[in-house]
Write a structure and sequence with these properties.
It contains 18 helices and 13 strands. It is of the alpha/beta class. Helix 4 packs parallel to helix 5 and helix 11 packs across helix 16. The protein starts with a helix and ends with a helix.
């Protein structure tokens, strides 16, 4: 424990909810292993967390760097580029001070000896190495999506890309051959959403950013993935061929609880749990499209009408301004209609508690990676309506590979919503597949399982880097 106490890891996520959530559980695991951890937020998010960011172990603390940008999906690339300029200067200054002598605050933290930065913040990895601190990349998305970014050159070579111009990109059900290990089931529509705008001469700016940071990962000391062998062994193996080292250590959400309130930027409506208590077993549809998805009024109406048509009670997470023009009277009236039709609408929910509740029968989700692994852990059937980025890949794995749910991408129609919700709620085959995968994942994260062993190896790797660097 004495050697571990001298190890101090700076954990730096991208300042959006899904990335913070995953990397907060990772930080909790490092603290549990006896290491000191500084968790680096943006100024905006640290203010938003308030007192919740002071809880936890005396070996865990929260600091921040400037970030003045909004969190909408359309602002993500601007946010990331801002971090490369204004944020990176503050980050380098802070890291330098933490390396030289801790922070001189007499709180018992030794100097920083290692950085684990979000893999899409490549500047944070480069700056740490330039200062003399060994750095590791952590990618919070699925291994299958990361492999697709690596595979872009091969997809162009084989003719998978670009999609035909006009007509919505040609036949979106055309097979994709260029992502190794996925040739038998991957279609054009299953690639990350930005692939659809690829042409011979132009690539979507956000996709180009992701391709660049993924390529950058090949040069880092190691890549950490929040996944399990039972979920993505093939994708991890193909990624490992391109890396110096890879650690598949998840799902972290089932391994290390985060400090209360420290991982969520929204205050959960815990009263919904009492509402669930009043429902019968597996009778409720849980609906959450994540922290970034924005839907049109028409899509909102289709979802709502489809949910009501099933006759099942539903718990719907509807963030403020998630629906375009959501202050419009017709939207508010529709929300009231939902409440009158055996539905409950909340701005945010304690998702893990909801998913493990006996009353929840299925999860209508955007298939973000955190939501996907959380539902997988609890054995809850999913109905996926992916919005962007890796969600398209994740939903294909749910529907075609693991068979733990249904994939409704590219469709938002009330009749389809109702049909698929009923199937997800009532299919014995889907429920059994979900339970089977849940058992396998729990074996991965249990003592002696692959993820538990990889996490232990990662802690040893970090200790060795910290000692060697000294």
């Amino acid at each position: 424990m004495a050697a571990a106490a001298a190890v101090h890891v700076l954990v730096f996520p991208t300042p959006v909810q899904g990335h913070i959530n995953c990397m907060m559980h990772f930080a909790a695991g490092l603290v549990d292993a006896g290491l000191h951890v500084t968790f680096l937020h943006s100024d905006h998010n640290l203010r938003r967390l308030g007192g919740a960011a002071t809880a936890g172990s005396p070996r865990l603390r929260f600091l921040s760097v400037p970030d003045d940008h909004a969190r909408g999906v359309g602002d993500l690339l601007e946010l990331l580029r801002s971090f490369q300029t204004k944020g990176s200067v503050a980050y380098r200054s802070l890291l330098t001070s933490l390396v030289r002598a801790g922070d001189n605050s007499n709180d018992g933290f030794p100097p920083v000896t290692c950085v684990v930065a979000d893999g899409i913040l490549s500047f944070a990895i480069d700056a740490a190495e330039e200062i003399g601190v060994p750095a590791i990349a952590f990618r919070t998305g699925s291994a299958c999506s990361i492999l697709s970014y690596f595979s872009l050159p091969r997809m162009f070579q084989l003719g998978d890309l670009p999609f035909p111009a006009g007509g919505g990109g040609g036949d979106l059900d055309e097979p994709v051959r260029g992502v190794p290990g996925m040739e038998s089931f991957l279609r054009r529509r299953d690639l990350p959403s930005q692939f659809r705008s690829c042409t011979e001469n132009q690539i979507d700016p956000m996709l180009q950013y992701l391709i660049d940071v993924t390529a950058h990962s090949s040069s880092v000391r190691a890549l950490v993935l929040n996944t399990a062998a039972s979920m993505e062994a093939s994708a991890v193996a193909h990624i490992a061929k391109r890396m110096r080292d890879v650690f598949a250590i998840g799902p972290l959400q089932d391994m290390f609880p985060a400090p209360a309130g420290a991982a969520s930027l929204w205050r959960a409506d815990d009263a919904c749990m009492a509402w669930l208590d009043g429902k019968t077993d597996r009778s409720v549809v849980y609906v959450s499209l994540g922290s970034l998805t924005v839907i049109s009024r028409e899509q909102f109406t289709e979802f709502l009408s489809g949910l009501i048509a099933t006759g099942y009670p539903f718990l719907w997470v509807l963030r403020p301004n998630m629906v375009e023009a959501s202050k419009n009277a017709s939207v508010q009236e529709a929300i009231e209609e939902a409440r009158n039709c055996n539905g409950r609408v909340v701005e945010w929910a304690p998702q893990r508690d909801v998913l493990r509740h006996r009353a929840v029968g299925c999860f209508l989700t955007h298939a973000g990676w955190n939501s996907t692994v959380e539902a997988t852990i609890e054995g809850v059937p999913m109905m996926c309506w992916p919005f962007f980025a890796d969600q398209q890949m994740n939903s294909r794995f749910v529907g075609a590979v693991w068979k733990t749910g249904l994939d409704m991408k590219d469709v938002c129609d009330r009749a389809v919503v109702a049909k698929m919700v009923r199937e997800a709620m009532e299919s014995a085959e889907i429920r059994e597949s979900a339970r089977t995968l849940a058992r396998m994942v729990r074996q991965d994260v249990a003592d002696g399982g692959s993820s538990a062993a990889e996490f232990k190896r990662l802690v040893g790797f970090i200790k060795e880097l910290s000692t060697t660097n000294k």
